[in-house]
Amino acid sequence: MLFFEDFLFLKTIGIIVKFLSHFWKMFKRLQQKWGINGTQFWVIFVVFGLTGITTAIITRYISGWLGLGVNSSWVRIILVRIVMLILGYQLVLLTYGGLLGQWAFFWKYEKLLLQKLGIIASDMTKDSRKPIKIAVFASGAGSNAANIIQYFANRPDVSINLIVCNKPGAGVLTVAEKNTIPTLIIEKERFASGDAYLPELKNAGIDFVVLAGFLWKVPIALINGYPNKIINIHPALLPKYGGKGMYGSKVHEAVIAAREKESGITIHFVNEHYDEGTTIFQANCKIDSSDTPDTLAVKIHDLEYAHFPKQIDKLLSAQTK
Ligand code: GRF
């Protein structure tokens, strides 16, 4: 009997765990599709909740004010509900969204709705020929930058417009030159404690920032200038082997020293902490007993080349939908 109860208990736990992991994956997928971080997700959730409750209350007041009751014509009742749903709900949604700091997120969807209804002109007519402009920040050899440039080379909708680098003489500058891409050399003081070169980025029309071997911490000024539009690639499976000082060969040395059986890459949104933004994508590779930091670096680079441009592409199309 006890055995049967134990079995039932374990089975229930199993179902709950399965349900939670399913919910977690769905939550992550939505976050990725909407291009938002975890906190934003919950704020948006609250905005929807508040909007539903408020719209219902307002509808009740309006119905009362119009004298609608059980004996009123159902056509009038439904008409009020439809108007409230189409107009009232959207207005309340935008109001709560704005009040809770999510105006940009909700306006993007409202705009789309208004465009579909033909109330405002579609961006497509204005911008359909305008590509999404990317700035790649890199300070090393730039093999990822080169791979990204090559991937998007024949794409009219995406263009790599700027290489930002903090190391004069870095290999990535040669990559930029070969591909005739403008470069911006930055210095620490202004980047970290000044305007983070936002004026230059905005003047160049940059829409999206990709860090590919960029080692400086990204300042809040840049994060605020490009909310959910800055991503990084890290050569390990975060949260392990990340953080300040964990870059390049140091990561691979630490992974090998810890006798890990696998390593990989993490593509993530950038926040104000090193390697801590929401994960977008991870891919793994096996580590053999004969692997050294150098051979592991090759495996990791191969993963980066195979996945980084594709993930950028996927994210851009999800964010512009
Ligand atoms: C890559 O391994 C990337 O994961 C890390 O820095 C390295 C840059 O390599 N952030 P490269 O300059 O693109 O060759």
Quick take:
The protein has 321 residues and is of the alpha/beta class. The protein has helices spanning 2-34, 38-65, 74-99, 103-116, 123-127, 143-151, 171-178, 188-193, 198-203, 220-225, 248-257, 293-320, and strands at residues 132-137, 158-165, 183-185, 208-211, 230-234, 262-269, 279-286.
How would you describe what is shown here?
It contains twelve helices and seven strands. It is of the alpha/beta class and 321 residues long. The protein has a seven-stranded mixed sheet, covered by helices on one side. The chain is globular. The structure holds 5-O-phosphono-beta-D-ribofuranosylamine (GRF). 5-O-phosphono-beta-D-ribofuranosylamine is lined by residues 138, 140-145, 212-213, 233-235, 248, 300, 304.
Q: Tell me the series of helices and strands, N- to C-terminal.
A: HHHHHEHEHEHHEHEHEEH
At CATH level 2, the architecture of the largest domain is: 3-Layer(aba) Sandwich
Into which percentage range does the β-strand content fall? 5-15%
The total count of helices amounts to: 12
What is the CA–CA distance across the termini?
Answer: 55 Å
Reported by name, the CATH topology of the largest domain is Rossmann fold
* Integer tally of domains: 2
Unique bound compounds:
5-O-phosphono-beta-D-ribofuranosylamine
Our Rg estimate from Cα atoms comes to: 25 Å
The class by helix and strand makeup works out as alpha/beta
* Assigned CATH class of the largest domain: Alpha Beta
